[in-house]
Design a protein that fits this description.
single chain; 11-stranded mixed β-sheet; 22% helix
């Protein structure tokens, strides 16, 4: 029994059939015509496209040397379960994520030693100033929220981060279009031409960060990037003095999916910049193969600020190296409606004036 080959239209995805009138393959949906040999060549190329090969070497990192962790203490939060590491001179403190009291557990155990640390460059005063600057001029912010006394706590925290690095061999196919428009006395015509743009090559990635803490919001952490890894140093416990360090609870193996997403997207965007001269360019398929992959463990400096308003907690984060500050703010609904209806009133007044002028001229 013969099996018929079915071709999909590269333009709209519809099933293509042979048209006896034009003696070509033609899409009945978008009317695009194709030469058979060109269509077969395109179909063969699709079948032979490589697939992703994104596996990582996540061999456990450095273990603590004997006696090296004696000056570190471990605290656990009874509310969110987070485990905080700090130097042994730190008194009982509160969780930097949920602000609840933490309980002394004793010495650190079962945790890898960080390979690197980026030391704090900005202090608590700078974090407070950034917060006040962040809320300044926000007309829809509740008045009471603007009071600086609503800052519950400002804590310097070293957030655990897995750093992924690899050389990549990428193969990416983009769908691109060009359009031209013309008209006659009756109609306006638009012709859209479709193209397959194929790009490939090698790109190296280094220190692609993935947050290793479940308590630290990934969106918040990625929003304060980038961190300058050039200022990273080999880890020493002395850098923890005066700060807290979150113990990772997401291991390197569990962070691979996010690392692959970031690398794949970055590769697609990098090659996308080479596809020029088109009206639209979209990624249709891509494959990334990794070579010389490795994952390292580091601590990144973050200032966390917690504020409470109407019983709801708001968390803000500042990059302890660069000062980049992010965080959501509450909205004064009354001020919003006054602003909204004020804009509406202005728009209505302008519309009424325009209609009145037309009325006078008619």
């Amino acid at each position: 029994m013969a099996v018929l080959q079915e071709y999909k239209c590269p333009c709209c995805g519809g099933a293509i059939e042979f048209n006896t009138t034009v003696q070509k393959m033609k899409c009945p949906y978008c009317d695009t015509e194709f030469e058979m040999d060109v269509l077969k060549e395109y179909d063969d190329a699709l079948k032979n496209e490589p697939t992703d090969d994104m596996t990582w070497d996540t061999t456990p990192g450095t273990e603590w040397s004997e006696g090296e962790d004696e000056n570190l203490a471990s605290y656990v939060c009874q509310s969110c379960g987070g485990e905080i590491v700090c130097d042994s001179t730190t008194a009982a403190t509160s969780c930097p994520y949920c602000d609840n009291p933490v309980v002394m557990m004793g010495k650190v155990s079962g945790m890898l030693k960080p390979d690197y640390v980026i030391p704090f460059k900005l202090d608590k005063k700078a974090a407070k100033e950034k917060y006040l600057s962040h809320i300044k001029g926000k007309t829809l912010l509740p008045k009471l929220f603007k009071d600086q006394n609503h800052i519950d706590e400002i804590k310097g925290v070293y957030v655990p981060v897995w750093l992924f690095g690899a050389d990549t061999d990428s193969h990416i196919r983009y769908k691109a279009t060009r359009s031209r428009t013309w008209s006659d006395s009756k109609y306006i015509y638009t012709e859209t031409s479709h193209y397959a743009a194929i790009r490939g090559g090698e790109i190296g990635f280094a220190q692609v960060p993935v947050d290793g803490s479940e308590k630290m919001d990934d969106t918040l952490m990625e929003s304060i990037e980038p961190f300058d890894f050039k200022e990273a140093v080999d880890f020493q416990t002395a850098y923890l003095a005066g700060y807290l360090a979150d113990r990772y609870d997401v291991d390197a193996e569990s962070s691979i999916e996010r690392a692959n997403q970031r690398i794949k997207f970055s590769a697609e965007e990098a090659f996308r910049q080479t596809v020029t001269g088109f009206a639209t360019v979209t990624t249709e398929s891509s494959s990334v193969a990794l070579k010389n992959s490795e994952a390292k463990y580091a601590l990144y400096p973050v200032w966390l600020l917690n504020t409470t308003y109407n019983g709801k907690k708001y968390t803000f984060a500042m990059n302890g190296q660069t000062g980049k500050f992010v965080g959501d703010l509450p909205m004064d609904k009354g001020a919003f409606f006054r602003w909204f209806f004020g804009i509406g009133a202005v728009a209505s007044a302008v519309s009424f004036a325009a209609m009145y002028i037309i009325y006078l001229l008619s």
